[in-house]
Structure formats: C-alpha cells, structure tokens
From TrEMBL:
InterPro entries: Ribosome_Biogenesis_Reg, Urb2/Npa2_C
Record-linked Pfam families: Urb2 (PF10441)
UniProt entry keywords in alphabetical sequence: Membrane, Transmembrane, Transmembrane helix
Positions of region (Disordered): 1-28
Residue stretches spanning the membrane: 1133-1155
GO cellular component: nucleolus
Identification of the protein by name: Nucleolar 27S pre-rRNA processing Urb2/Npa2 C-terminal domain-containing protein
Organism encoding this protein: Ornithodoros erraticus (European soft tick)
Biological-process GO terms, alphabetical: ribosome biogenesis
Residue ranges of every copy of the Nucleolar 27S pre-rRNA processing Urb2/Npa2 C-terminal domain listed in the record: 1071-1262
Length: 1270
C-alpha cells in the first residue's frame, strides 16, 4: 500500500493571482458530477482495454505504446470536454496515474490493473500527462469551482496530495525532476511542501555522469528561481536552499555543486529585486553564515560544505544587486548601511576560523565575500552621498607592498595574507581571489588618490607585479565556467588570463616590456590552438578570451601592448624558421631571415620607449641623419633594413618556414590597428613583412596547392598596402632604396601570378602594392633618379612582351608610367629631377607606342591584351597633354601617334557594336572618357559624338543590369558598377550644353517607355542622378530649352510617385525625391517657377507616416524633404505667399511621421546608426521650424495647428527623450509666431487629453521666450 500523504513544512498554500483565474462555469450538482465521471471513466476504460487487446494481438508490449497513447487520449478528451465539466479531466488524469501505479487512491468502482512498465517509463508517462494538463490551463479554473462534499473523488484533494507522492518515487532518474518541474509549472502549491526535499535530491545527484540528468536539473533549478521571482518570494527560496544543504537522511554527505545556469538566472533576478526583498535576503545570508561559522567555531561540526555553497550564491547576490538605486526608500537605505557594517565582520570571523584550521578550504570564501563587499562599497561611495559622508575615503600615506590589502579591507594585512599563502600555487582559489582583491585595490587607489603620485604608482606597480608573477605564463588552458571553485591548473590559467586581459588598461603601464612580450607570446600561442571543443553556454574558452580582447578598444588603444604584440610575433617567426639541408652550403652560412626577425624582436624595452618617435632629419639635405645619430630603435630598424637589402639581392635562401606558421602570423596581424600604428611599429612591420614576402619564395615551393600560394601572397600584399596607406607617414623608403624594392617585388611576384589570369584579384593586389611603393618613392628626389636604369630595362623588354605571359611585367611598367605622367603633369618640377622625369616618361611613352603597334598587328588581339591597350592609350593621352604644356625640345616626337588613334577607333567599335565582354566594356568606357575629357586639347583626335557614345553605353549597361537581376536583387544603387558611374561622370563633365540637352531628350524618351519596377527604369534613374549632379547651376545658352526638358522630367516623376507604394518601393521613392532635391538646387533658368510649384505639390501628396520596409529609407526621405522645404523658405521666397497652406501640410506630415517612428517602443528595436539618423531628422525639423519662424505673416495663423499635430500624435506615446527634447524646441519656435486667436481656436478642436498638453507646451514656450536686448 502507498502510505498516506504526510503534512510538511509547506502546507500553507501560495495565493494564486486573481488575473490567472477565469470566470467559473455554472455549478453542476454533486450527483450529476459523480454520474458523469463514472460514465466517462467506463468509456475510457473500454477504449483502453480495446486498444490494449488490439496491440497485444499484434505482438506489441505495453512499453511500446502506453507512454505515447495515454497522453494523446487525455489531450483528445480535454479538447472535446473544453466547454464541459472540468472535474472530468481530473478524473481521467487520476485514472491514468492509477494505471501507472504511481497513486492508488482513486475510489471508483471500475476495476483496473497496473500497467507493466518499469519505473523510468512510468515517471516519463506521468510527466507527459502532467504536461498535457498544464497546456490546457484548466487548473486555476478547476480550483475556483466549488468542490462536492459527498463525492467519491475530490479533484482538489487529489491535487493537494500530488506533491507528497513525489517523495515515494525514485528520484535518481531525469523523469522525476521533470515531473516536479511540470507540477510546479501547473501551480507552485503542488510542490511547495516537498521543495526542500527536491532541492536536497538535486544537490545529491549532481555528481551523476548522466547528461540528461544534468540538463533536466538545470531546467528545474532555473524554473524554481523564475517561479519564486514571479511570486516575489525570493527570501522563501533562500530559506529552502539553506534547509536543503543538509544531507539526506541516511546518505553520506557529498560535495555540493550549484549549476552555472542557476547562478546566472539568480543574478538576473537580483538586478530587478525590490529594496525590501534585497535587505531581507542580505540579512538571511549573513545570519545563516554567522550561524554555520559559530557551529564550526564551537566544534559542533565542519560546515565547509554548506558555507562554500552559500558564499557562492551570496557573492552572486552582492555582485548584481542595485544597492544605490535612486528610488530606494530611506528605511532600506539605513538597513543597507547596517548590513554593510555587518558583512566584513562575518567574513573576518570566517577567515580567522579558516586560519585556525576550524574550517577547511574556506579562506577563499571569506576573501570572496570581502571582494563582493568591496564592489558594493565602491558603488555606494560613488553614488550614495549619505554613505560616502559616513565612510571617509582612506588616506594613502606611503606605498603599499604587493601582499598588503588593508587599504580597502583593514582586516587583510600583509601578515594575514602571508599566513594564507605559504605555498600559493597549491591554493588556486585563494590565489585567484587575491588577484581580484589586488585589482580592486588598484581601482580604489585610482578613485581616491592622484594617479600620478609616487605612492599610488608604486602601489599599482606592486599589485600588477604580484598578479603577473603568480600567473603561470605559457601554461595550457581549458574552458572555465567563471566560478571560483574547484580550480585545476588549466582552468586557473584561463581565469588568470581573462583577468589580466580584462584589466589590462590598469596593469599594462606598470608591467615591464619583457613581461608584456611574454604575455603576448602566450596570446599568440592560444591563437594558434584551433582545437576548441564544444563547451556549455556559460563557459569561457581561452581562445574566446583572447579574441575578444584583441578585438576590443582596450587593445587598439594600448600602444605598449601593440608594441609587445609585434615583438612577440616576430620572435615567433624567428623561432619557426628552419634551415634546409643543402650539400653545397657551408657550415658558417648566415641565416638572413632568422637574423632579420631576431633583429626586429630584440630589445623589447627599446621598442616600448622609442616606438612613438620619428627619425631625425638633416634639414639641409632633407635626408636622414647618419646611423650613429639615430636613437636606438631607429638604429635597429636601420640594421634590419640592411639585412632586408641583402635578402632582396640574394637569389637563393637556405631557410624555410611552414605555411601554417605564416598563416597564423598574418591572421594575428589583422587584430592590430594597422592604419594607426606608432612610426616605429609601422616601419618595423613593413620591413618584417616585406621579408615575409621574400620568405614566401622559399616556402611556396613546399606548398602543392596553387590556391594556398595565392592566398598567402595576397594576404601579405594586402597587409603591406594597409600599412603604407596608414594615417602616419611611412618611413620605409628612408631606409630602403625604393627603386630596388620596386624592381625586386616585380621580379618576385611575376613568377607566381602569370598562371592565374582567370582570377583578377591577385593582379589587382599586385598592382595596388606597386602603386603604393611607387607613390612613396617618387616623393624622394634621389629615388626618382634611381628609377632610370629600371626604365631603360623595361624599354628593352616590353616591346617584345606577350600580353598574356608578361602581364605582371606590363602592369609594373604601367604603374611606373602612370607615376611619371603624374609628375610631368605637375605645374612645377624641381630642377634636380626634371631631366630624369622627362626622359624616363619619354622612354616609356615610346616603349608603349612600340608595344601598341606590335599589338595592333596581331590579329588575335586577346581580351587581356585589349584591356592593357586601353589602359596604355589612356596614359598616352594624359602624357600628350602634359608634354604639350611643357613643349620642350627633347620631346620632339608626338606621343599621340597613329597607334593610340587606332586603339581609340577599336574602343569606339567595341562600344558601338557591343561585341566584347563586361570587363572589356568597362576598360573601353574608361578609355573613351579620358579621350573625351581632353578632346579639345588634342587636335589630332577625330570628333566624337558624346550622345552616341552614351546611347551605346546605355545599351550595354541595361544588358548587364538585366543579367545581374537574374542572380541577385537589383537596386538603383547596384544597377551600375563603380567604373560605369565614373565613366558617366567623366563624359557628362566634358559635354557642352547642347550635348547635355540632346542627352536629356533621349533619356526622357527612354524613361517614358520604362516600367516603374524594370531594370531599365533603375538604370535610367541612376543615370539621371549622375547627369543631374553634372548640370551647371546657371546656363545661358540653351537655358530655356533645358528648363523645358527638366520640367517634363519633374512632371514624369510626380506621376510616377502617385503609382508607387512606399512600403514596397521605398528605395525608388527615396531616389526620386533625391533627384527632385538635386533639381531644386539648380537656379534659374534651369528650374522655373512652374517646375518648383510641381515639386511642392509632390511633397504635399507625400505621406512618410506609412510603413517603410527599412527605417533607413524613412530617414533618407525625411532629410531630403526637410532640405527641399528649407530651400523653398530660403531661396524661393516668391513661392511662399501662394503656397503657405501646402508648406503647412508638408510640415504637419513631417511632425506626424517623426512622432510615429520615435516612440520608445519603436526605438528599442533600432540599431545605433538608425537612432543617430532619427536624431538628425529631428534636428532638420528644428532648422526648418527656425526658417518658418522668420515668416510670421504667412505662418502665424496656422502655426498652432502644427503644434496640434504633435499633441494628437504624442498624447498616447512615450517619445525617445533626445528626440522629444528637440521637438520641444520646434514647438517653442512655432509658438513664437502663433497668434492668440489661433491658439484658442486650436484648443477647441483638440480632444480632452490633448488640451492640457497644449497648455503646458504653451506655458513652457512663454518661459523660454527671450525678452531682453541684443
């Protein structure tokens, strides 16, 4: 027999909230309920028996179908009986539970037999039945109904005894905790009586290895916290936890282990805890800890197990409470002050017991309480005036040694800390808490003292040294659960690393350069470890700690850490280099690469001291001073550059490095702010990674995959490009010969890239790197002279080059020619370098003319060759213009010869006939744009029709847009590529007014034939945007004709906007408004009075209050409309007199839409960029209101109605505070010009809730009104 339920400590019911109880159904008599329950039970019994016989006849056992069958039957019956008697559902639930043999107290006449299932299956089925009943949400309604007095079955009594029967089930299964959890979800009353036992059993089974058990227990504990939080009974939860920490009867006390998910949920609960519960919980913690410490001190037992668990929960509580909440009642403020006095006393008593040996392994618990108390103390000292007045800041009279923590905690003297740590490495918990206390001491010192004083500096340095010296640098790390208990060597290393990196801004300045380099070597070692296993959610992995730190602003703003990081990186590269065994090498061969990286990583103190300096210049010669006059760091860079010159000049190397090591080094460099490094670090990285680029020549031979070779080379080149493009001046070519570097990189990279013609990315990176080197080299006069031999060499080789096999060499020559053309184009050339520049440019021009002639004789004319021909011809044209301006006798030959004219004819033919591919079109268009730009200065060129070229380009652009729309979403922004837009800008800028008028007419015809959403409409709209940006403000010739055409465009756009849906076509609407704004900025005679009136009518019909697919489009539209209306009020004043009502309608729409999108509920879901845009919208509206206030006669009578729009829109909303503040200024500006009769009229039209708001705004505006004299 199952024993009857016993009374427990939780017999008192928890009141069910009234809003959870639905209205009760009409009562049914007791006799009717009895008959109905009996009848339903008989039917269900026959159904179950029939199903059992059918399944047994087919060879199935009850365990195969019963756990799934019974919950389905119960769910179906409850769905059918939803509007009937609620007691019947409980009857059926009780009957099924009786079939499982869990409860046998159903006194019905129907006979039943217990199903043959094991304990796990019974409990699992029981949980599913409870889940079905929980989903029905009938419990509250059933409890609200009157219970029959004479019935054989009483549902309320059955449910009240449910929790008691859980105590007789086997709790060593996941199903047991799932059942308790489901019952608690139905109603906390059901398990309140067994909550202590449930928690006891949870702690007792935490050491089981079953993953399912741990998962179910985590869910159970989290649900417990949530349930007590909703009922505002967290103190009751703590009492239950304290009672549950004692071991089960007859069981051996085992270790207690509180889950991380429980602590995280409890922490979230503490952040929103009321002040009354806060003080009560705090007092409970202290009383319970004092009681256990007293028992241990009196020799009544060792309470270490209970104390350590309670301290962990208590510290979580202290770390997350809002102790300095501004709305806290004075009574609770006083209680917190008392509790702050009591907490250190309890911790001190616990610490003394631990030192005396009466409490095992509890020293870290006492220290942890003191640390948590210190955090609350710092918060109260900063934000609570009454607390700071009663607790004065400690005075620092002399520097504090590394083991003295008495500055913030008087009890933690140096002697006591020494007693705690006879062997620090054997007590990881104590050591880690001491780390925390040292960090807390540093923060307190900086808060209470001057950071620059000697005592403060020495104290902080001692604390930093203590932490670093007791951390095992370079030790292995494992995932850590962020809890100060059960540390292993690996988890302690992770915790210490996390602490060091989190508080690095406080500690870095006090650590030596060698210590920083060791720390960075540890970071690099962890980065290379890519074996991160899957860990639980709340665990911290070493790689995640390192990655988060390197990506944070703490690292990007810490120059000492960046310097140490680069030093450690080059040291790792040096250690990874190995010499290849070669039979012809001598024993004393110098390993140049290893020596280079050793030089770049030597003397960390020197790099830390001088990294911010720049090399000294001789102001007479504009060159660097001699190596002996440089400081130590730049002397090291000079030595490294000499080694790099030797490496570049040597043809072979006996050193190699693995591709994995280079990959890790390149990935690590991406964490550095390469654009903003100190001069020393920037130059060191440039020298080092140019060495890596040449080291790849040896390393790449051992890599079989071509993609790996290209990937490593591209990554290194991109890194060098980023360094050369930094915000600081690169000093690389002050130590290296620029021409030698250019020449060697050309020879180096030309060996690897020719086979990758299908992939244009490597060649793009290659050309970009050469461009950067040439750009910096041409800034130095001596370097320009040094390029003369290289130019002669290229002049001998290029005329016979094949466009396909020698593309890298041709690309290098084009880069040089481009730089020389830029130099020749300058208005002033220095006398020392002018002959060299002119001669080299002439040589390259003749060389490329010969190459073009040879290329045109080739009938195949490969696409790559044609592309190069277009680039070269464009440079030839630019050079011809510059040479014509100089007109020297040395330049007797005309550079724009027949070859360039032939290439121009070929480009024209390609564009007109549209035979080439997409890339070919872009190169041809860019070449044609250059030719058109200089057509008036080059008499040898034939007349080119710009409208015809544009029509051909339009056909190509629309074709490419159609192809692009098939594979991606086509927008106005991406329908034209960047090169296509540049081409349009160039040809439109060099057009005459007559040609612009001709193109506008043709474009208008095309746009009238387009469908609104077609790809051609988007291309033509984008083209019109570029054309509008190129239109002149004042056009005298063809002005009237152009104005008529532009008016037709405006009318076309106004009609188009009437057919567009803002929700679906928000991008098109935004673009069209932008075009109209651009046209509006044009002055007479381009935009007439009639055209501006049409634009104003378009704005009047616009409604920005509709829903946009993306809020960014709303912001763009809003800003555009504000600018257009401001233009009307500033520059088109003649429109205002007749269109004041239209402008009023537009401003009212702006106010309504901004109020709609600026509510707090809406702003919560916006990213920070969008919120910033909304604030700009509000500022634009304020500027618009300022302009309106300057026209009192036109807007004085209607200004109050604009205020009414704001009132009616915001009366039921809570606006985002910064936007609301700006809107207040808008209202004040409007009230400044409003008339009293209009104000009274508006008050009569407003609803009741808006009247008070309007009056308040009016009174505030009068207070803000300026009445003085200027």
């Amino acid at each position: 027999m199952v024993p009857p339920p016993e009374s427990g400590p939780g017999d008192k019911e928890i009141a069910t909230p009234a809003n959870m109880v639905p209205p009760p159904e009409p009562p049914i008599s007791a006799r009717s309920q009895e008959l109905l329950s009996q009848e339903c039970l008989v039917q269900i019994k026959s159904l179950v028996d029939g199903a059992s016989e059918s399944m047994e006849s087919r060879g199935y056992f009850p365990a195969d179908y019963v756990p799934q069958c019974l919950p389905v039957v119960l769910e179906g019956f409850m769905s059918f009986n939803r509007s009937g008697n609620l007691h019947c559902s409980v009857v059926l639930l009780a009957y099924f539970v009786s079939l499982l043999g869990i409860r046998c107290d159903v006194p019905f006449k129907a006979h039943f037999e217990v199903l043959k299932l094991n304990k796990r299956q019974k409990q699992s089925c029981f949980n599913k039945l409870l889940q079905v009943y929980e989903a029905s949400e009938e419990y509250s309604a059933m409890m609200a109904l009157p219970q029959k007095k004479n019935g054989a079955f009483k549902p309320k009594t059955w449910f009240r005894a449910l929790g008691t029967y859980f105590g007789y089930l086997d709790y060593r299964t996941p199903a047991w905790f799932a059942c308790v959890n489901t019952a608690m979800s139905i109603s906390p009353n059901l398990v309140e009586g067994i909550m202590v036992k449930a928690l006891q059993r949870c702690w007792a089974t935490r050491n089981l290895t079953s993953a399912d058990m741990k998962k179910v227990q985590d869910i159970f504990l989290v649900n417990v916290v949530h349930t007590y939080e909703k009922l505002f009974r967290i103190p009751k939860l703590l009492r239950n936890i304290f009672s549950s920490l004692s071991p089960l009867e007859g069981a051996t006390p085992g270790p207690l282990y509180v889950t991380s998910s429980f602590l995280n949920t409890f922490a979230k609960c503490c952040t929103v805890m009321s002040s009354g519960q806060l003080t009560e919980c705090w007092s409970l913690f202290l009383d319970q800890l004092a009681y256990w410490v007293g028992k241990s001190k009196g020799g009544e037992g060792n309470m270490t197990r209970e104390i350590s668990t309670t301290v962990e929960i208590f510290c979580t509580f202290l770390y997350h409470i809002q102790a300095a909440a501004p709305t806290m009642p004075a009574v609770d403020v006083k209680k917190i002050n008392q509790l702050m006095e009591k907490t250190p006393k309890v911790a001190s008593e616990m610490l003394d017991c631990s030192i005396e040996g009466k409490l095992d392994e509890c020293a870290h618990c006492a220290l942890l309480i003191l640390h948590a108390w210190g955090e609350v103390h710092i918060v109260l000292q900063s934000y609570r005036r009454s607390y700071s007045e009663s607790n004065s800041k400690p005075v620092l009279e002399a520097s504090i040694n590394d083991k003295d923590l008495s500055y913030l905690h008087p009890v933690l003297t140096g002697d006591k800390i020494t007693c705690l740590l006879p062997e620090p490495k054997d007590s990881k918990e104590v050591l880690y808490v001491l780390f925390l206390l040292q960090i807390q001491k540093v923060r307190a010192l900086l808060m209470c003292n001057e950071a620059t004083s000697d005592a403060t500096t020495d104290s902080i340095a001692a604390a930093a040294t203590f932490i670093f010296s007791n951390t095992s640098i370079m030790s292995s790390c494992k995932a850590w659960d962020e809890r100060v208990c059960r540390f292993t060597e690996e988890t302690f290393s992770t915790a210490a690393l996390n602490l060091l990196l989190s508080y690095s801004p406080l500690l870095v300045s006090c650590l030596t350069s060698k210590n920083l380099v060791h720390l960075c070597e540890w970071i690099l070692h962890i980065l290379q470890d890519s074996h991160d296993a899957t860990v639980p959610k709340h665990y911290v992995t070493p790689k995640a700690v390192v990655t988060e730190y390197l990506s944070s602003s703490s690292f990007k703003e810490s120059k000492p850490m960046q310097t140490a990081f680069i030093t450690a990186l080059f040291r790792n590269l040096s250690e990874s280099i190995k010499a290849m065994k070669r039979s012809h090498d001598t024993k004393d061969a110098t390993p140049a690469f290893k020596q280079l990286f050793d030089t770049l990583s030597s003397s960390p103190a020197t790099w830390k001291k001088y990294a911010e300096t720049i090399p000294e210049l001789d102001h007479t010669s504009k060159k660097l001073v001699g190596p002996d006059d440089l400081n130590k760091m730049w002397g090291i860079i000079h030595d490294a550059s000499q080694l790099l010159s030797v490496i570049m000049s040597s043809s072979e190397s006996s050193e190699r490095v693995t591709a994995e090591c280079l990959t890790h080094a390149l990935q690590a460099m991406e964490f550095l702010p390469l654009e903003d490094l100190f001069p020393g670090n920037q130059t060191r990285c440039l020298v080092g990674f140019i060495g890596v680029l040449f080291l790849l020549k040896t390393t790449l031979r051992n890599i079989t995959s071509q993609s790996d070779k290209v990937m490593l080379t591209k990554a290194t080149c991109n890194l060098l490009i980023t360094l050369l493009d930094g915000t600081r001046r690169p000093w690389l070519l002050d130590f290296l010969d620029g021409s030698l570097l250019f020449n060697k990189i050309v020879l180096l990279l030309s060996e690897d890239f020719p086979q990758d013609l299908d992939d244009t990315a490597p060649h793009g990176v290659y050309e970009e790197l050469l461009n950067r080197i040439a750009r910096d080299a041409f800034r130095k006069r001596n370097t320009v002279r040094a390029f003369t031999p290289l130019v002669k060499q290229l002049g001998d080789v290029i005329p016979t080059c094949d466009a396909i096999k020698s593309k890298p060499l041709l690309a290098a020559a084009i880069v040089l020619f481009n730089q020389f053309v830029m130099e020749v184009s300058k208005k002033f050339l220095h006398q020392d370098t002018r002959p060299y520049i002119q001669k080299s440019a002439l040589v390259l021009s003749k060389t490329f003319s010969s190459w073009l002639t040879q290329f045109l004789e080739d009938r195949t004319q490969h696409i790559e060759g044609r592309s190069l021909a277009f680039q070269i011809s464009a440079l030839q044209i630019k050079y011809a213009v510059a040479a014509h301006r100089l007109s020297t006798e040395d330049m007797c030959e005309e550079p724009c010869n027949k070859a360039v004219l032939s290439v121009l004819s070929m480009a024209w033919t390609d564009v007109m006939e549209s035979k080439a591919n997409a890339m070919m079109h872009q190169e041809a268009f860019l070449f044609l744009s250059v030719a058109l730009k200089y057509r008036h200065m080059l008499t040898a060129f034939p007349d080119l029709s710009v409208p015809d070229i544009w029509m051909s380009a339009d056909f190509v652009f629309t074709t490419e847009a159609k192809r692009l729309s098939e594979c991606t979403s086509l927008t106005v922004e991406n329908c034209l590529s960047e090169k296509q837009v540049i081409f349009l800008q160039e040809i439109f800028k060099c057009c005459t007014p007559k040609e612009i008028t001709d193109m506008l007419e043709k474009l208008l015809i095309l746009m009238l034939d387009d469908e609104a959403h077609s790809h051609t409409a988007k291309v033509h709209l984008r083209t019109f945007e570029v054309l509008c940006a190129s239109l002149p403000n004042n056009v005298e010739d063809s002005g009237k004709e152009m104005a008529d055409i532009l008016q037709k465009f405006i009318e076309h756009f106004s009609v188009t906007l009437t057919f567009l849906n803002v929700t679906k076509d928000d991008e098109l609407v935004t673009r069209i408004l932008g075009v109209l704004a651009t046209l509006l900025y044009l002055r007479k005679p381009s935009i007439t009075h009639q055209s501006s009136a049409v634009i104003l009518q378009v704005l009047c019909a616009l409604d920005l209050g509709t829903t946009f697919s993306e809020i960014k489009f709303f912001c763009e539209c809003y800003l555009t409309v504000c600018r257009m209306l401001s233009d009307f009020l500033q520059h088109r004043v003649y429109v205002i007199a007749g269109c004041a009502s239209i402008i009023h309608t537009c401003i009212a729409m702006l106010i309504r839409s901004l109020v709609k999108f600026s509510s707090v509920d809406e702003v919560k879901g916006y990213p920070s960029e969008v919120i910033s845009q909304l604030q700009k919208c509000a500022s634009s509206l304020e500027r618009l209101a300022t302009l309106v206030s300057e026209h009192t006669r036109e807007f004085g009578k209607i200004a109050p109605f604009l205020v009414a729009e704001y009132v009616t829109g915001s009366v039921n909303l809570t606006l985002y505070p910064p936007i609301k503040q700006t809107l207040m200024f808008v209202m004040h500006k409007l009230f400044s010009i409003s008339s009293e009769p209009s104000n009274k009229m508006v008050l009569l039209t407003l609803p009741k809730e808006g009247t008070e708001v309007f009056k308040l705004l009016y009174s505030n505006s009068k207070k803000m009104c300026f009445r003085g004299k200027v």
